Amino acid sequence: MTRRGVALVVVGMLLVAGCSANGSDGRVLDVSAAASLSKTFTAIADEFERQHDGVDVRLSFDGSSTLANQIRQGAPADVFASADQRNMSKLGELAVDPEIFATNTLVIVTAPGNPKNVRSLADLTKPGITTVVCQVAQPCGAATDTVVRRTGITIDAVSEEQSVSAVLTKVATGQADAGVVYVTDARAAGDQVTTVNDPAFATVVNDYPIAVIADADDHELASQFRDLVLGEDGRRILRDAGFGVP
């Protein structure tokens, strides 16, 4: 055997050993989920891996519109969880039997202690208050736009972000006085922000659908993940995070 042949054999043995050391049999499940699901789906993925020895759940979080476009363009995804039905619908037949697993509503977040004394949606129009929102293409932005149109209140946002987590970050880091995010994101942020509700938000509810992707590498494994989200364990995790559960 040539030195090159020996080297390839050694490399192969090392790779096998590495996989064994990691306790993985090579089964990877790619899950794309809305940014507002970061905390809950990380917990659900941990539970799934605990129940499925040797499986690695690879999570991708971003705005639902961004993820849907990536999946349509061929990005690896076995399961997709969207923050609204509109972006799930973009996938057409690529999304197999979407099912609603959670609901969410909006809320205002401000710097801790609410130094600008924001008390309602209308206060976001006051001079000297900088506000960030999501892009309308994203579910959080579409929901914000619906609330704004229904109330007749115009928010002159200083920026429109690609995901709800980006809005939250700008407020938590002092780059903006206020932002419109989901109730669940505000809860997850804890004392990094102060939460301000407005009755108008209750009229706009986002439904979160989940679906197996038609060309998933392992349909059975992807279906099992979807079932975990829809089942009692998934519902408990989602409920504890503040999501509404159908």
Summary of the model, kept short:
With 246 residues, the protein is of the alpha/beta class. It is 39% helix and 23% strand. It has a five-stranded mixed beta sheet with strand order 2-1-3-10-4. The chain has a five-stranded mixed beta sheet with strand order 7-6-8-5-9.
**What is the CATH topology descriptor of the largest domain?**
D-Maltodextrin-Binding Protein, domain 2
Element order, helices and strands? HEHEHEHEEEHEHEHEEHH
Query: In terms of per-residue confidence, which ranges show pLDDT below 50 for 5 or more consecutive residues?
Result: 1-24
> What characteristic shape results from the CA principal axes?
elongated
CATH class of the largest domain: Alpha Beta
Contiguous helical run count: 9
How much strand? 15-25%
Binding site for molybdate: 36, 64, 164, 182
Keywords: Metal-binding, Molybdenum, Signal
GO molecular function: metal ion binding; molybdate ion binding
Pfam families: SBP_bac_11
Notable traits:
D-Maltodextrin-Binding Protein, domain 2; five-stranded mixed sheet; 9 helices; 10 strands; disordered N terminus; Molybdate-binding protein; molybdenum; ModA; metal-binding; signal
